[in-house]
Amino acid sequence: MLQVATIREHKDHIIERLAVRNFSDAKTIINQVLTIDEKRKATQTELDNILAESNKISKEIGFLFKSGEQQKATILKEKTGQLKEQSKQLNEQLSNVQNELNNLLYQIPNIPNKLVPAGTTEEDNEEVFKEGNIPKLHDGAIPHWEIAKKYDIIDFELGTKITGAGFPVYKGKGAKLQRALINYFLDKNTDVGYQEVQVPYLVNEASGFGTGQLPDKEGQMYHVTGDNLYLIPTAEVPVTNLYRNVLLKESDFPILHTAYTPCFRREAGSYGAHVRGLNRLHQFDKVEIVRIEHPNNSYEALDRMVDHVKEILRELKLPYRILRLCGGDLGFTSALTYDFEVFSTAQDRWLEVSSVSNFETFQANRLKLRFKNADGKSELAHTLNGSSLALPRVLAGILENYQTENGIKIPEVLQKYTGFDIID
RNA sequence: GGAGAAAUGGCAGAGUGGUCGAAUGCACUAGUCUUGAAAACUAGCGAGGGUCACACCUCCGGGGGUUCGAAUCCCUCUUUCUCCGCCA
Fold first, then answer.
1. What is the DSSP string of A69-104?
2. CA-to-C1' distance for A388 and B47, Å?
3. I need a labelling partner for A202 at 20 to 30 A (CA). Which of A124, A218, A293, A374 fits?
4. A177 touches strand B (CB under 7 A)
5. Residue-range domain boundaries for chain A
């Protein structure tokens, strides 16, 4: 959520940048926000004046009672009745205006960074980096869902029986390989200073609001209605909300966390040809990295996160590329996002395995995540996060790219975690 | 799940209807003293709105109510603690 003060000061710039997202209503909404905020201020001032007078009279009544002048007090009491009625009305007005203002603010996405290219679909994303060799597979190479079946390491039908489509069961070396990946990712992250945390997989409404999933995207999350809780779609939600309503010191920066969690996504409406196997699931595992940064450092931090994910993919020897998301593909809350995609050789397509974003103050404003700056003033911090990494597609990439006629080889860096070097 | 107690500033902890955004202690910040530090002393020290700056307004777990006036009384929700029940 943008701050009204920011909107007021940088109105033209914001309208111009929002055009990159094809957010055509920008000008109208921004102008509405400013008008309504003026109304808010006026109403607030009017209410404050009435409350001030009412407070003054109440105090006087107190003194009069003490000195035994009951009659004078009674006269004053009558006067407060009117004021009370007025303040009640104004209060209602104020909360209406405030709701109106908030409803507008909720509709405005984050301002894209100047690096974000214009564009409408994923075709317009900008490839900024590419590395690794696409292996030449032997004749008869197969996609990962067939590999999974052939070696009996992932059972999709069994998951369907227990829950439904999109909830696979990992078995034997498949399960072990998954666990190896989780441990490997966590170790890589903690090695460079991310503190590991284990967090709840269910979150309340306030948390969903803080990171921007609510109120608009509740359809993407599983809702436990009995207790009004949501299953997390990503560790970003609980981990970032660790810092909801927090006032930091400048010396607290940077804050770095990593967390392994399962992720639950309804993926409503995204069925189709490209969702086979591990490509798109309702439940999957992910290791996330989250940073809370001083505004001056957040873009350097973003670059460091990108470098970190690069190193992991390099170590796994998977061919990958990095995309800078265009305005049309950029998430609602993000100012700049880099997607990492691994090449899935048997499917002949790129699979997204990580998404690294800077949200600047967009989430912090909702979270009330601030720090005391050098002038002693409260200022919003910047939040960032990235996958490091999402498991299923990395797994798919390994199974497909490492397949040989004799079985699936295990990437060298993982062998000390798996305890085996081939699935056969 | 049942019964009882509690929730106040970074922490501890006063405050049970009026001048209380709130005593006191610790922590913290600045100054005096000191070669420096400690100690001692002095001053400052919650957040949000509003203002050029003041004034002023709001906030004592959340929400609602009583009252001219609520941290204080009432209702409700949440959380914590104790006891009982259940249980990985």
1. -HHHHHHHHHHHHHHHHHHHHHHHHHHHHHHHHHHH
2. 36
3. A293
4. no
5. 4-107, 122-423
pLDDT at A61: 84
**What pLDDT does A141 receive?**
87
**Assigned token pair, A57:** 């009279």
- A59 CA, B17 C1': separation in Å? 13
* A390, A261 Cβ separation under 8 angstroms: no
pLDDT of residue A274: 67
How far are the Cα atoms of A81, A87, A375 from residue A84, in angstroms, in the given order?
5, 5, 40
Q: Which of residues 351-390 of A touch strand B (CB under 7 A)?
A: 370, 372, 378
Residue type, A396: A
Q: Classify A113 as helix, strand or coil.
A: coil
Question: Has residue A291 got a pLDDT over 80?
Answer: yes
pLDDT given at position A88: 84
Rounded to an integer, the average pLDDT of A27-33 is 92
The nucleotide closest to A65 (CA, C1' atoms): B18
Region of poorest pLDDT, from A2-6, A23-27, A288-292, A382-386: A23-27
Chain B positions with a protein C-beta closer than 7 Å: 18-19, 47-51, 56-58, 68-69
CATH class of the domain comprising A122-423: alpha beta
Encoded tokens for A298: 């957040």
The closest alpha carbon to A199, from A241, A255, A228, A229, belongs to A241
Measured over the CA atoms of residue A112, residue A116, residue A117 and residue A122, the dihedral's sign is: negative
ipTM of the complex model: 0.83
A22 in contact with nucleic chain B (CB within 7 A): no
Amino acid A331 reads G
The residues, ordered by sequence, that sit 6+ positions from A405 with a Cβ below 8 Å of its Cβ are A138, A140
State percent of chain A over pLDDT 90: 58
**What is the CATH code of the structural domain delimited by A4-107?**
1.10.287.40
Farthest CA pair distance, chain A: 104
- What is the per-residue pLDDT for A197? 92
CA–CA gap between residue A89 and residue A103 (Å, rounded):
21
Quick one: A222 exposed, middle or buried, by C-beta within 10 A (0-12, 13-18, 19+)?
middle
Strand pairing of A255-264 and A195-196?
parallel
A403, β-bridge pairs: A408
Both tokens assigned to A69: 């002048």
